[in-house]
Amino acid sequence: MIEVHNVQKSFDGNQVLKGITCTFETGKCNLLLGGSGTGKSVLLQCIVGLMKPDLGSITFDGTIFTNNKVQIRQEIRRKIGMLFQGSALFDSMTVYENVEFPLKMLTPEMTREERRDRVEFCLKRVGLENAGVKMPSEISGGMKKRVGIARAIAPNCTYLFCDEPNSGLDPLTSIKIDELIHEITHEYGITTVVVTHDMNSVVEIGDHIIFLYKGLKLWDGNKDEILNAQVPELKEFIFSSSLVRAAKKVDDETQGGLAAATTDEAINI
Amino acid sequence: MVKAFGEFLLFIQSMLTRKERLAVLWQRTLDECIVIGINSIFIVAIVSAFIGAVTCVQIAYNLTNPLIPKSTIGYMVREMTILELAPTITSIVLAGKVGSSIAGGLGTMRITEQVSALEVMGINSASYLVLPRILAAMLMFPLLVILAMALSIIGGYLAGSLTGALSAQEYIEGIRTDFIPYNIVFALIKSVVFAFLVSAISSFKGFFTQGGALEVGNASTTAVNNSIIAILVADFLLAALLL
After folding, report:
1. Set of chain A residues whose Cβ sits within 8 Å of the Cβ of B112
2. What's in the keyword line of the UniProt record (chain B) (predicted)?
3. Do B120 and A50 touch (CB under 8 A)?
């Protein structure tokens, strides 16, 4: 479980995070939802340690991360896997080497054969068992995301962070990436935090959703509760998507809840 | 300027704390030696051979006094090459080639979040990416300078012989006159200092690039400019201190 307590962050006097307190639950896909410029990515970067919050604390399974000793922060960081918005694959390495890299760096006790087995397992898990020899420049955006996921889970991470995993992908590939993140989260019981503004992701994988608005947490709940949330900013955000409006129409007609309204039904409307 | 220098010192400090394992550092340094050293041999060879040749021809053009022996041309080529041209011109050439490559490479890694990916994994990105580049430059620059010295002198020999400015015997006699071995040591000290300046300044500029492709280009240009200025200032200081 990751606990964020009163995290604040400013840039040149502009307060981007205004005291956010929230919890990311273990074994669930926790979504950080919000429009552009609401502080989602800044909060994510504070949590993984790429930025230092001005105020507040972040705790990983009871161990304080912010302002702790370097060794303790390093130990926590080594349990973190992250999928970046642009995948951030090392472009001088092949797909195989990218996935092997954290194993080589973080687990020097592993033999070459053990590393090979682990890399092959991870690539197979994301459906890229034949792409190991390719360079990142030779694969598609969706494949890059999958390699990013394979690299993140290779060292048996406890926490998986995904920064807008669907950006730049077509809807079908987006759904596949969402499903993969959801499956991996439940399969390994890890704590996953996904930054998104995509309502498809909310419907697909939103076990626990935190809605940010202008640097504040306005709402949290799950995908079944989100449509009935009585927060005007959240309602405006959700129903700005025509797909969700269509799904809501199906929902009203069938009374089956948002989850019952499949994407196909929504598209047909 | 003072703030930038302070940030530069903090950057160097961050690189030296929490270093990666020795095996990783060694492997990365060898990789960088190929990029910085082996891949620069051609340009250094061409530049130094022609500089030696041109120096010889131009000194011969200026030495018209019949009382000055022609072997002086060989002597002057040697002194100019070893003391100044080989270490300084080679380092300036490498500032353009290696410096821009380092700044551009690190800048691209920064804007494509590859540096952040290393940090999230718990790897000290400065130590992993920058320290091997600096070590490799400090190993390779002296070797390239030795190569440049040899090729400049050979270039002068060929130019002098082919143009008839002086005979081969006179040139070799001049080369061997009043040789001071310390000059070689001085040139190598300069090359190590220049290597540190070029690689560290270029890494600093590239590592902290923010923005997009335009900023990466700007970082490369600034890295080369600053490296060349640093080389010239250090050249003067070292000459004043060590000669």
Report:
1. 86, 88, 91
2. Membrane, Transmembrane, Transmembrane helix
3. yes
